[in-house]
Design a protein that fits this description.
Radius of gyration: 19 Å
Helix content: under 10%
Structural class: mainly beta
Mean pLDDT: 75
Number of helices: 2
Strand order of the largest sheet: 12-13-14-15-19
Shape: globular
Amino acid sequence: PIVVQQVPMARRGPIYPVHTTSRLRQQLRFTYPCTLAFMPDGHRVVLASSNLRIVDIATGAVVREREEAHGWKAIDAIAVAPSGRQLATVSWDETARLWDPETLECVTVLQGHTDSLGYVVYSADSSTIATSSGSNEVRLWRAADGKPLYILSSPGLTWVASVCFTYDGDRFLVGGRNAQKDVGVWEWALPGQPSDGETAVAVAASVAELQGKRLSICHEGCEDEEAARIDWFDCFSLDGRRFCVRSGDSVHIYAVMSADGDCADGFSQVLTVPIQGEVYVHLSPDGRRLFLTRENVVEVRDTKTGALLSILHDHDKRIRRLAPSPDGRQLISADDQSTVCIHTLCNWTPAN
């Protein structure tokens, strides 16, 4: 794997030009925590704390707002259907809620989890929703009507960090940890949506086991929970082929074995980035860019070479949330003061 050098915090200014929409920074402030996502059109963003808002990027105007979307409880995660026709939110109230983005009316409440929910994601065709809870339970739902489809279980999986559908919708990936504190990726083959009234239980297997090989683990037996965690915030790229692991003083990027077996050992470590203190990471949808926070700045790196492409320095306080747009051309960030910035990214090419 490539190991990159630590970047001095004193370094200011982008290596490649980045435009930041300052109007949002001046007008939009939320009660922390602030959860955020882009709408597929790239012209609007969804922001939430306990309230849910849709904001126009060009004007900074709040287009729609729903106060106390989950009662008084904070919204922990947002997902936007790739079709743009539905939003999903999850909260500590043990429910997921589906919303019409044109009216912000709640159309369905998904119930069945017995612990607070921390993650929600749509399949690429917008037909299926996945939710995960603090009890390490993952459920799949039909987006059209909220019907429960599957409960995903694995005897070896004891902690769920992040979840992801593959582009073709045939597989479902979970990043997490087993009882021996080994960090890795588990995979489910999805047989399709069951008939009405049937809730199937799919038994998990690793990527390597599905290929007739022994389960590969990227980090083994780490006693320090913080050092062994997969980052909670979207550790997978959108296509499920790359994921991030934070281990002690480094962030590691791994390639997951693809369907044609281009990573023979199950995982292939491609990049290691040194870190200090609390950081938040996010991969671009295509897995080619790593967004990494350091205090109040964001580093943008090439995941193949480790090249530093840009440093975004538009926040005054520590950055807590990041999310790229579905096309990878924009990045939204929010800090401790819930100041929100929109960054328009370049089609970067790493310097020689």
